[in-house]
Amino acid sequence: MSTRLLILLSGVLLLQACGGADLFVPESPETRTPTMVDIVRGDGQVGLAGANLPELVEVGVLDQNGRPLAGVIVTFHPDPGFGSVEPSTSVTDGIGTVRAEWRLGPAEGAQRLRISVEDFSETLIVTATASPMEPRDALTITNHDGQPFGLLASGRSPFGHVDDFQVLAGTSPVVIGDFRATAGGVRSELAIMGPNLTPRLILDPWTDGDDALSTEFADPISVPMTFWVLRAPLEETTVRIQTDLAYTRGVYALEGLGLALDDVEIIDATADPEAPDILDFNCSKRVAAESNIGYQAGRLNFYYVNIVDGGTDRGVTCPVGGDFVAMASRADRDLLSHEIGHTLGLRHIDGLDGFDRTNVMHSSSSVRRFLTEGQIFRAHWGMRSVLTKLLPGVHPTEHLRPCPSQRDSNACASVQTRMFADGVVVAQALPATSLSDLDELLLQRCSTGEPAVSLQGIDPAELVDVYRRGPSGALRRELDRTGGGEESVRAVREAALRLLALGGWPQAPEMMEEAIRDDAEAFGDVARWGLRRIR
């Protein structure tokens, strides 16, 4: 036995001899629990229907001794149809508070937000009143062909400054609201986006009077692309490139990214003596690839190799916002759209509220197909986008801005900003479409082999009510096959009604009225909202 251990044992015996069994035991830390929860600010506000409230909702949490309690999870739940909150879940800071931004739903009148706190039994209620803007400002699109489009309006309103006020429309002209002239240095703009459209941005469009704005949709921006094929056989890789391009073109068109991937060049580098050194690729080999294999300035350069960063199913952009991409041999067809997203300055969305694996910028997925309008904003007007370097002048310099990849920004639309329901393709309705036919139409828009439940990317917080009828036979069979749940069906059916209302289709009023007759309680709010939009 060591001398040190003997000394320790002797000390224990001495304590027992002097004090008997009453040894000193340190007091255990007090368990702190959330006992008092208050709405610090943000209750009872008046704001614009469909816009962020002027003030954040702030919640304070105290323990049983009245001290601020950090690290407590707080969750915000708007009632159905009453908008969305960002972030929807948060953790109290060092002074026991959380703050969140509430975007009201489109309905006028009282709206309600429920707040739940971890280990606290009561649910707090915050209310707000949604008011409409006067129809004083309008936009005419001179070459409009009837397809749906959306507007993100920023500027001074009667309710204070508003960023990214959303207006959806299927007709032109469209009423925007009542915006006023804005002091310099404050966001004052109108962004126009939509499926199969090229985004447009109008700066400082507002005056204190009635504004009659006019613009036109532009042709897609042609992005020149060069594909360097390092791995043999050339024919197999060429087919792979063509397949990836076809998928990417379809996704980008339906999401309204406004890029034409039509200037394509494929170069055979399989016999290049330097190719074997590049086939197992990481970004440290970028310079060697450009110098020894080839590189074309003013174009996106893609290098098809065997391995990227140790995997055969990976791709990499060196760096984000750059014009160099490497693609491995077994990458899924959707990876090209993902890596082009990186060249446009977009980053991974894993872990951000409101995103799932169906977003183009998810880091590891085989069902990537959707972009938010906030991502599209960044791809075109963010300074990190390759468009600003590859095609200087394609967007005026004054339109560009330093959009951060995170959610909060005073200069750019939030990356979570959505105007169209991701998961449902906006498409022309078929003649004499019924509600069951609409389900069939939605199914036709699902890619082969991918489940209809990928449509669950629709944000339920953006939907007005819950449709309680069962799905059509075709949709039910598809959901049975893929294991989808009833919530997916409800989200699909409601989003479909919204798209009908916004699409300007002749059959839309009849379908809305049919929905009310079928189930006035479940479908009423959505259908009546749609009829107001149409009429």
What can you see in these coordinates?
The protein has helices at 3-19, 234-255, 286-293, 335-343, 373-381, 387-390, 435-444, 473-482, 486-503, 508-518, 520-534, and strands at 36-41, 45-48, 57-62, 73-78, 84-86, 89-91, 97-103, 109-117, 123-131, 137-141, 149-157, 160-169, 174-177, 189-193, 200-203, 212-215, 221-229, 259-268, 280-281, 300-304, 307-308, 315-317, 324-327. By secondary structure, the chain is α/β, with parallel strands linked by helices. The chain has four domains: 36-130, Immunoglobulins (Immunoglobulin-like, Sandwich); 137-215; 221-399, Collagenase (Catalytic Domain) (3-Layer(aba) Sandwich), CATH 3.40.390; 435-534, no CATH class. The strands form six sheets. It has a five-stranded mixed sheet, with no helix packed on it. Strands 18-17-20-23-22 form a five-stranded mixed sheet, sandwiched between helices.
Short descriptors:
Collagenase (Catalytic Domain); 535 residues; 5-stranded mixed β-sheet; Immunoglobulin-like; single chain; 11 helices; alpha/beta; disordered N terminus
